[in-house]
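Example for reference:
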Amino acid sequence: MRLLFLVFMSSVFTLNGILAFFWPHTLLGFALWMPIFLLGVHDMIQTRHSLLRNFPVIGRFRKGMENLRPMIQQYFIESDTDGSPINRIFRSVVYQRAKGEMDTVPYGTKFDVYRVGYEWLAHSLAARNLTEIDKDLRVTIGGPHCTQPYSASIFNISAMSFGALSANAVKALNGGAKAGGFAHNTGEGGISGHHLEPGGDLIWQIGTAYFGCRNVMGMFDSEQFAAKAALPQVKMIEIKLSQGAKPGHGGVLPGCKNTPEIASIRGVEPYKQVNSPATHACFASPVGLMRFVQKLRDLSGGKPIGFKLCIGRRSEFIAICKAMLETGITPDFITVDGGEGGTGAAPVEYTNSIGMPLADALVFVSDCLTGFDLRRHVKIIASGKVFTGFHLVKRIALGADLCNSARGMMLALGCIQSLQCNKDTCPTGVATQNPKLAKGLVVADKKTRVSNYHRATVESVAEIIAAAGLSNTTELNRSHVYRRVNTAEINTYEDIYPSLAAGCFLRDDMPGSYIRDIENANPELFSPSYCSID
């Protein structure tokens, strides 16, 4: 678009010059076109707005609408089809925090507080001063078998691969993580030089295709894994079992985004669509998963090992818990991805109708670990539509220890949700491998925005828990958050999701709603349709 602008303006000036030779009064055209030309040049050389760098002058129409949005939102509440507040309100908050702008609002709440599903935090009359709260809220991840525990921020970058994102986007995210002291999940596409160059902490995700640690047959390669796991930037390793946007489907990299560089990192052929298998080849049972966890822990030198999943059959996760007891092996963390999680490419049925929503999944995972008396060994990471400090507080109150965000971090990079992620035509250079578009994303500017957004969001969490009279997120529980369940009734999360006693699944006082799933859970099988090969 930049080249097109220059060609267009050159053509205009040339035509104007020819006309001026015959009709001198047309020289006035130069005075009319020159401001547009100068504005376009300014757009191309500035570094703050990717959209304007890639689409000079014309991109300002979209920027104008962005500036009008806060004004419009003073008078209108936009809603999704399910009646929940649309993400546009949260998107504005992310943009403002990323740019370091004022994020306070006049005239009070923009939500319908009498809408079923509206949620709020119970504040305290014994609120704490913010000076009493540690604004750098962190959680130590590492169970009894971990020899290199990691002190993680409560807010980190969720899994997004190089391939789904551009090289500049990856560099900006990791640079922001480095500046802000938080972690960057690589996604299943493997570790690239773009992840390593800025120096930020990494969570290396190992997917079903074992990109970055696979042999020529596409199977897991222990030597390659050990070499990369030893990198000092790699702080944790996450085994991807499934993701919320397309559980049971496997990752998809469109051929148009599979450049030779990406193909080399992943160990595949370039320019061909890459479909990751739906399941792992290294294990086929909960017991096999636990043994694989221990294998990776040994190969990595004792770094925290965990897995990510979207909850499907309840009995399968209970079977994983039984396998922990049977083998004596526990993961250091579990990342719970909600069915509402996002992705760059997935069938519409998967994004809308498969996978347990995050709130229910968090409660279920936390309660299962508690019921089997395993919760004290395992940290829980929540992933799925996390934008603001209150989103973090809600997830932690339900059972998470910390949260990951993908869409929030993409918005901080300058994503405008143009929905071009799967077409390689992202206008802001975030989700594309087109070098002309990716060039518009200036790493130095965007990494600062990512860091700004993280800092402001974590600080907002500190302010919220201080208002609740708490000193740390570890003190949050289900009684702190209220939800309107119908027009005339409100309940706390504790009323809706009653907490379980530690170890109750090992005794006779287990809740009746879990009995059938516990009876059907077999640590030697994920489900009757699987056969163990361990």
Notes: Confidence is low (pLDDT under 50) at residues 68-86, 529-534. DSSP finds 19 helices and 15 strands in the chain.
